Amino acid sequence: MAGNPHPVHRIEDYALIGDEQTAALVGADGSVDWLCLPRFDSAACFARLLGDENNGHWRIAPAGADRYTRRSYREDTLVLDTEWETPEGAVLVTDLMPQRHRAPDLVRIVQGVRGEVTVRSTLRLRFDYGSVVPWVRREDGHRVAVAGPDSAWLRSVPEVPTWGEDLGTHSEFTVKEGERVAFVLTWHPSHEPRPALVDPYASLRHSVRDWQAWARRCRYDGPHRDAVVRSLITLKALTYRPTGGIVAAPTTSLPEEPGGVRNWDYRFCWLRDSTLTLNALLAAGYQEEAEAWRNWLLRAVAGDPADLQIMYGLAGERRLPEFELPWLSGFGGATPVRIGNDAVTQLQLDVYGEVVDSLALARRSGLSAHPDVWALQSVMLTFLRTAWRQPDEGLWEVRGGRRHFVHSKVMVWVAADRAVRAMEEFPDLEGDLDGWRELRDEVHREVCEKGYDPARNTFTQSYGSRELDAALLLLPRVGLLPPDDPRVLGTIEAVRSELCQDGFVRRYTPDAAQVDGLPGEEGTFLVCSFWLADALHMTGRTKEARELFERLLGLANDVGLLAEEYDPVGGRLLGNFPQAFSHIGLVNTALALFGAEGAG
Prior knowledge:
Blueprint: E1 15-18, E2 23-26, E3 31-36, E4 44-46, E5 57-62, E6 70-73, E7 80-86, E8 89-96, E9 105-124, H1 127-130, E10 135-139, E11 142-147, E12 150-157, E13 162-165, E14 168-176, E15 180-189, H2 200-215, H3 225-237, E16 239-240, E17 245-246, E18 269-270, H4 274-284, H5 287-301, E19 311-312, E20 323-324, E21 338-339, H6 350-364, H7 373-387, H8 406-425, H9 433-450, E22 452-453, E23 458-459, H10 475-478, H11 486-498, E24 500-501, E25 504-505, H12 513-516, E26 524-525, H13 526-538, H14 542-553, E27 565-567, E28 572-574, H15 580-598
Antiparallel strand pairs: 1-2, 2-3, 3-4, 3-5, 5-9, 6-7, 7-8, 8-9, 9-14, 9-15, 10-11, 11-12, 12-15, 13-14, 16-17, 18-19, 20-21, 22-23, 24-25, 26-27, 27-28
Helix pairs in contact: 3-15, 4-5, 4-6, 4-15, 5-6, 6-7, 6-8, 7-8, 8-9, 13-14, 13-15, 14-15
């Protein structure tokens, strides 16, 4: 049976809830449209986000209402309150995923605020990304949905009238002021006994308490603290608690261009994010989370450095094959919908620099010593002595062939530089100090000769290219050249001139299709815009940097979440959502701009 078309949602119409093992997106119409169980990278049981209502969703809203009146997270939590006002009265719907003991639970509590309001719940579970309709039966006051390995149990407290219709489970009830009805949806493997029941109201109290206690650990107390804390909470929500890995986003295939084909699966952990993630967590006071991320990193990259991948699964899995789901129509018609990510097979030399830099940062920051850290760094440097001369696909995972990307070479320099500095600071460390100094100097010399265009006074995306790359904004941050070097200043101005649209930064120019190998365009890239603010600040233009930072804050949706990209023409967010890299950029830029006045 064909489903009704997905209502015209924007990406920013969604809010996030989660339990640090998976996450759900709740839409402006009160519908949970995306949820993968039991992990971030599991198959979705609600996939309406990328299809229609018959691909799975769960909507709770007043009868006849289309869109919430207002919504917000409870202060310093991931508990979402959505208010609905109707001619008959008002209700509050509270959504959360409590910390799980064994099974994941989705809790939705309806509370009467004023008058008497009729509320409807429509639940359509569709396992395996919206393709499998489960068998539903009654058992012990539950509606139980089973299909293959998946089972989900729905109950309400108190029980309300519930029936099956149109391959969905429906409830309708009224609430008066002060009355509450709670729904709990629990997933577990179908071959196992039903998990223990959770108290939805106790779960709410505990969730609020735990999130607020975690948020109080934030050391930053400067301007825009609410945005910084919201970003840190989002990063915490995107952390897979059992391993410490942080997913780039909880979604797949949200398009980088409306209706386009640039749709990727981001439910994995990228090494490129490692240094900036560690910096954000450590600077904000979250040493435990930083150590968990560092330990995930060590486990994931263990082995032959020639086999280092740019990304891994939540527990360090290496095989992430990419395939398409033809039965899903895509967000706003953007296809294909992809699962997995073939970029996992790419050579990206910059990740070696990011790993070595991350481990150096961990050492300087006082994270607990690990016996394998220095040995791992040494082996990577040995590998880079010869491998650095190869072309690669670069940090943007282009699919248009390998090139000598300048940013990749710069990060090789970073690896050598951090290793040399470590040996100079800790003489007991063993390694090829002279060889690594030679590597550092050789890479620096080649980048400045082949990656720099003296006629335009700017570094370029790759050797011999006229294209620019927003990653060049990181040159002063990583220390290749001092911030006041004329070549750095020229590069910043070139990026502002050629890559900015309405003041926000693209990764590279729209006509670089021969580089990325893909048709169409994309929006401005939010983390690159934060990098521009950082570069402006480092070169003495702090006022401009703060103005840009505040404009970027204005792009977040009504509950403070950012996607990967922004379309200045359409005025909408683009790409997977919420995006860890964007929120990492927000935290690091806030700390750079206001850290001295905001350190707690």
